[in-house]
Amino acid sequence: MSVKVFERPKALSSVIFHYCPGCTHGIIHRLVAEAIDEFGVQGKTIGVASVGCSVLAYNYFNVDFQQAAHGRAPAVATGIKRCLPDRTVFTYQGDGDLASIGTAEIVHAAMRGENITVIFVNNAIYGMTGGQMAPTTLLGQNTTTSPGGRKPERAGRPIRMSEMLSQLEGPAYIARVSTHNAAQVARAKQAVKKAFQAQVDKKGFSMVEVLSTCPTNWGMTPNEALKWLEENMLPVYPLGEFKTEPGLPGPSAAKTTVPTREVKTD
Amino acid sequence: MAEQILMKGNEAVAEAAIRAGCRFFAGYPITPQNEIPEYMARKLFEVGGTFIQAESEVSAINMVYGGAGTGTRSMTSSSSPGISLKQEGISYIAGAELPALVVNMVRAGPGLGGIQPAQGDWFQATKGGGHGDYRLLVFVPASVQEAIDLVGQAFELAEHYRNPVMILGDAVLGQMMEPVVLPEPVDLAKLPQKSWATTGTGGTRKPNVVNSLYLDAELCEKHNFKLQEKYRQMTEREVRFEELNMDDAEIVLTAYGTSARVAISAMKRARSEGLKVGMIRPITAWPFPYEPFRKASERVRAFLDVEMSAGQMIEDVRLAVQDRAPIFFYNRMGGMVPTPKAVLEELHKIDHSLKRDKLGGRLGV
User: Fold this and answer.
1) Section A10-24 average pLDDT
2) A-B interface: how many C-beta pairs under 8 angstroms?
3) B364 within a domain of the structure (yes/no)
4) Which of A18, A132, B171, B271 could form a Cys-Cys staple with A126, CB 3.0–4.6 A?
């Protein structure tokens, strides 16, 4: 008698990913789809694809989808969620999309505490357009627009979105996870689940930043890329939970924000 | 008969939208249209809708994209500089074939310009504005009542064609009060189902995707041809205009929105002074009413186009009239509004010059 121990999540479509060999988008797609399956919300989920390598995410998830302009996914998700508050709404954005052109949209969706889930894939580079520098690119990292390595006097220093957004009162859950080995993928799975849990419990904005590789544009083999991520990205982008509202599974992260007092109005 | 009340243009547009079933509004403050988001902030929640003050016009139009994608009647409003920021989103909404209403209470430009009424956004509204080959259905109301009536039609037509519709007003229309009759609210339950909307599959259908991306050039061309076919249908079915005193007109005034109100006053005085003046007033800026201009151009002596711009609608008038009759132009800009007296003087000047012309008035301009 055979027992099925592994299968494609129902929330993933049966198609071939266009992603490059060794890219971790596929793993992250799977984690999101598993969370959708486990919460039983496939029929009431609406995803928002961004611009970048994951622009075609709507082909891979077996749920309703909207494709947003570059950086605008949190605004589009806000419109969807406000019109259909009982649906599960998530965005799937890269670091060029979220941390560069879309900074206004992500900061204000988080500020409003929009009850949406953001999957933020950070691979420290623009993948789709061919390996340009991102705000998340590491100092010294070679890209097509930082030839010879990112220099702080020319291009500033890497932006840490999770730390930044966790200063706001709106987010219920913010975590940074990684995909460079199986143990980290298992932790990433728990974080993605917790983020969706926050939305299902109507606690407000949730975001999981997932450190990811880009072997093609980093100019490495898949294994080299995983090693590079571990050795170079982790010191700049420490893993962990930056904000956890009480009531979510696991220990609450130290609250970094003091709730604002309401002023009296007539 | 329904009750007549006095209402400010901006608030009337907002109330008309709510009555037309608008349940999602995202906007950002900018003068002279602030009464629209303010009214929505007070009233929209009462009917089960949602108002959001977005962080920018860019974000507001993208929220409208998201809301419209769920099948909810959605709108935004702004004024010229803000509408420039919304152009990206408007192009995406047109590309993704979503219905939405965008209201532009035009102020003076370019740049920050000024907050007084102007008509310098005709090109932006009718010739594109954002990137790519798309069109908006653009209404140019000349009274608060007409704006109310067109808001209702705008939501209907936006859904019929799955295309964004623009109300192109100006600071006068937004800020003035006029007696109006409001329509009865539409019954949302009776509106047609939107099979394309992203509401969650419910486990009963294949996923719906709201999208404007076609990486395959052949498919992208096919999509573009499909859009163009919609625009062709609009040019056949949706042209709206008003003709006044055209039966015996020798000089034809043309203007839209606020300048049309001024032109109508001038026309009435010209008539009382014996000048045979008629008027063609476009109500749709796009599709433009080329046909009444073409017909008139075969028999009238001259046209006078009055605009609060450097001359934008006049390019459409020229396309229709070609060289069959001279087209004169009178304008004010930067927030200045023409007076009926000044337009009347222009009409007299044209009349004199036509009479001087031995050939009977075929002047070039």
Assistant:
1) 95
2) 133
3) no
4) A132
